[in-house]
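Researcher: Let's do a round of design. I'm pasting the structure tokens now; please hold your answer until I've finished.
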């Protein structure tokens, strides 16, 4: 029975995951390295909940109850009494492996160790623990409170029992679970990133303007955002990083990152978060 959840990382993804877990009634320990990071994450959650109250989707009491279910943690030792950890720290294998090694020593024997990685191999993260059968990928989409999907990724050793517990939890979070095996980019980014990369190639080759490329996919394919706008929204550094993982993981030139993507990242044009990507943001 999953009752208490630790979320590691109070950034964009971690705070969203903490919010949906608290909304579903779970006790949530939100961990980050500094109090200011936690407070920034809690601020975003509070803003989202306030909007829900304003729009009549929640009462003020419900908002307060959700916030009360979230407690701050600045120490991984707080994992000692949780039933599941969902790690949403930076996308770096060494950092994730270090966190999982520590969690393996701290978390109760029965606890599931999940990662929100968007592309790093679950099996490789699991291999540093003594419980690889209880390690699993739980890939939420951004913005977490809005997007319905959770891609659940089985590592090589993940048991059916652990998969089922995470699938049940996902349904309780009012999300739709999809089962995927552990291959580079899973399904979401194996398909999304080459599409974005191809849109960047089309821009690079002068086939059309950025606005035209986005309009084709928005109005012609009913995508909510064009691929270049979406790339800015995700972060161009993240897009490049995931393309590199696909390229290296499959060893296939069809996943080669577009030189224009490399150039933008080298220039520090990382998308919305840096104020400039394919578009300019104020
Ligand atoms: N947090 C919480 N709620 C948010 C939000 C956020 N960051 N951004 C938007 N919303 C809410 C808005 O408040 C609004 O809700 P209400 O009006 O009912 O209060 C609703 O979402 C719609 O927002 P908008 O009207 O402002 O704009 P929109 O209709 O364009 O929707 C969007 C915004 C949901 C982000 C939409 O543009 C969209 O679906 N875009 C594509 C998102 C996508 O593809 N995500 C996946 C990215 S890839 C990923 O996450 C995985 C990876 O590994 C890289």
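Researcher: That's everything. Go ahead.
Model: Designed sequence:
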């Amino acid at each position: 029975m999953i009752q208490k959840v630790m979320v590691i990382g109070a950034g964009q993804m971690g705070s969203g995951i903490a919010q949906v877990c608290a909304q579903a009634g779970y006790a949530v320990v939100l961990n980050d390295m500094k109090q200011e990071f936690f407070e920034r994450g809690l601020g975003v959650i509070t803003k989202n909940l306030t909007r829900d109250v304003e729009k009549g989707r929640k009462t003020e009491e419900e908002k307060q109850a959700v916030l009360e279910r979230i407690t701050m943690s600045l120490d991984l030792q707080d994992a000692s009494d949780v039933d599941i950890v969902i790690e949403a720290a930076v996308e770096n294998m060494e950092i994730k492996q270090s966190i999982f090694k520590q969690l393996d020593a701290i978390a109760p024997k029965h606890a599931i160790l999940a990662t929100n990685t968007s592309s790093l191999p679950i099996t490789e993260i699991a291999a540093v623990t003594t419980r690889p059968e209880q390690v699993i990928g739980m890939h939420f989409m951004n913005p977490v409170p809005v997007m319905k999907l959770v891609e659940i990724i089985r590592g090589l050793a993940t048991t059916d029992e652990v998969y089922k517990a995470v699938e049940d939890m996902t349904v309780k979070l009012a999300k739709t679970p999809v089962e995927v095996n552990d291959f580079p980019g899973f399904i979401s980014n194996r398909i999304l990133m080459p599409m974005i990369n191809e849109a960047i190639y089309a821009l690079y080759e002068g086939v059309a303007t950025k606005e035209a490329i986005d309009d084709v996919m928005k109005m012609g394919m009913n995508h909510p955002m064009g691929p270049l706008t979406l790339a800015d929204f995700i972060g161009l550094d993240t897009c490049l990083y995931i393309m590199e993982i696909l390229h290296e993981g499959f060893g296939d030139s069809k996943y080669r990152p577009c030189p224009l993507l490399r150039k933008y990242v080298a220039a520090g044009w990382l998308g919305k978060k840096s104020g400039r990507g394919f578009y300019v943001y104020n």
